[in-house]
Amino acid sequence: MSTFSSPAPAPGGRKLATSALKSAGLIDRDEHMRDVSSENPGGRKGISKIRSHRPRPMDIFKDQPGHSRATTLASRSQPGASLDGISIRGAASARNSTVGRLRRNVPGMASASAAAAGGRVATVAVKAVDIWRDFVNRRWNPETRFLNLESMSDDPELGKHGLLPPGVPGSSIKESSVIFKLASQLKPLPQTISLANNNISSGQILSTLAHYLPKLANLSLQNNDLKVWRDMDHISGRKGKLEHLRELILLGNPVRELEIKHGRGDKYKSEVTRRFPSLVMLDQEAIATIAFDAPVPSCATATEERPTATTFPFEMKPSFITGVDNAVISSFLVRFFPLFDNQRAALLDAYHPSATFSYSVNTSIPSRARIQGLHSSREFPNQRKLEWAVWLGDSRNLTRLGRSDGAQKAVNTLHVGSEAVVRAITALPKTKHDISGSPDKFCIDAWPIGQGDSMKLFISLHGQFNEEPSQGIRSFDRTFVLAPAPPSSRAKLNGWDVVILSDQWTIRAYSSHEAWRPGPMRVHAGEGLPTAVQHPPQAMPQQSASTMTVPSQAQLEEALSGFSEPQRRLIVEICQRTGLNVKYAVDCLQNNGWDLDRAVANFEQVKGVLSRDAYL
């Protein structure tokens, strides 16, 4: 029996076949010819059972005509086959794909493709930004400079392309940012925008509005779902957002309706106008604005823009201390607060046996502090650790006491006597007052006051402290009434020159010490003010302690006995305003014809050269 085998290929046969395939464009490089016999074809390895998923270029032309992987890839690369005509960033074009390269290599196919392209109108995939641009242009009225963005979810074109406008569940800040950016490219720039009826529930959606349209004059947010004032802070605040806004409509938003429902309409208007000081219309009603306008000629045009006040007409002054030696105040404070922070029981001798003490807590975050983000900023990470519960027990905030037991609690929270005072302050959380740090963090006002037959010293102190152990910051106001310590008293024997008669302490949520920084006072929160001339601090000067010398009531009456009643009132008035003693106050008034204003003005001119003997 004879054995059949594959005939051997003719010499040079493989080279001829390879050249023919290359000329036809079916292969790009030389390939070895292989036998297809079932047993060890051509003496080479058989076909592997494991095949790669990567398609070979030759597979595209197999089994034509008919559906193949190549036709599938080609169909995907056709214009309009992407998601609803929206082009996908990074997707390769058909011309640069493997299919395109192979088609160009096949004779006649490249020319056919070129002819087909030249014989039809080229189509371009529609981008989402083009749909938004068309939407903005359709809603734009250049004559009135009005952009109508109301009820965007009902727009048929947006629904057709599956785009989610702001306020629709599933949408994000990106959509509103695109819309506002496209609006900023309109000519002329929009003056009025209505975002009514969009179910906007977060102010974050509006956060880029002021960036793209900072000079917007009129804004309607009617019939949305804004609930808290924090939502409005996204378009207002210290960074000067929407400084030119003149009309705002918030009708139909919970942030307005709840305030009106509970009879807090005035508070609502105050909250809005504080955030938008340039407003003249709120909810289609005129509102009063704070402005200090100079008179203008009657011929001025009605459209002339008048300035709006940003600061009060009077500046903040530095600490005011008069009628008493600074060393008295310094000696008291630099000893009192370290003991209050570290050893409160040692303050027993500093309080008069009949002294009174009370404290009150104000848990509301000041509006400026909320706008500045002082309680949520990364710069103050410990603010979130603070708790008010530990302070509320004995708080004597008269505005928060209940009607049923308010009177009794007002009595119980007023601690009378030095021992009761020390027990009360010892029960409070530990504190740390940085009195050795920057003096700008504290503001002190002090002057003598009359009480009974003697003069006392009144001290009003504003500042901040760290609450331990959280290290969060709180602001405070503290008022002391002091009297000279009697020579044989426990206070005097323990080194106190003064004794505390009254101590009232208010603890507040932290707000920056910029509130009492000398210089212009801003009407509303906004951009930073120009730096004011810094006055030398009068608080806590490092001087030696001395006793406080003030005249008694009897001495004062004796000094005034030779003057008429009108003159007495003037003398007392100038003593209180300047701190001069009676002798110098009388000389000042006599030399200025008993004109109080002239006397005070004269005092301001010469006070720098007056000796210590001129003062109380």
Structure description:
The protein has 616 residues and is α/β, with parallel strands linked by helices. It is built from 20 helices and 15 strands. Helix 18 crosses helix 19 (582-591). The radius of gyration is 42 Å and the shape is elongated. The termini are far apart. The relative contact order is 0.07.
Short description:
By secondary structure, this protein is an alpha/beta fold. 29% of the residues lie in helices and 14% in strands.
The count of DSSP E runs of length 2 or more, i.e. the number of strands, is: 15
Oligomerization status of the protein chains: single chain
Beta-strand residue fraction = 5-15%
Average pLDDT score = 75
Q: Kindly name the structural category.
A: alpha/beta
- Biggest sheet record: 8 strands, mixed
Q: Kindly, what is the distance between the CA atoms of the first and last residues, rounded to a whole number of angstroms? A: 144 Å
Classify the helix fraction into a percent range: 25-40%
Unreliably modeled segments = 1-6, 35-39, 41-50, 60-99, 101-125, 289-296, 298-303, 525-550
How is this fold's topology laid out?
Layout: H1 13-23, H2 69-76, H3 98-105, H4 109-118, H5 128-138, E1 140-141, E2 146-148, H6 156-160, H7 173-184, E3 192-194, H8 209-212, E4 218-220, H9 229-232, E5 247-249, H10 254-261, H11 265-275, E6 281-282, E7 285-286, E8 320-321, H12 326-342, E9 351-362, H13 367-372, H14 406-412, E10 415-416, H15 418-426, E11 431-432, E12 443-451, E13 454-467, E14 472-484, H16 490-493, E15 498-509, H17 553-560, H18 565-578, H19 582-591, H20 596-606
Parallel strand pairs: 2-3, 3-4, 4-5, 5-6, 8-12, 9-15
Antiparallel strand pairs: 1-2, 6-7, 9-10, 11-13, 12-13, 13-14, 14-15
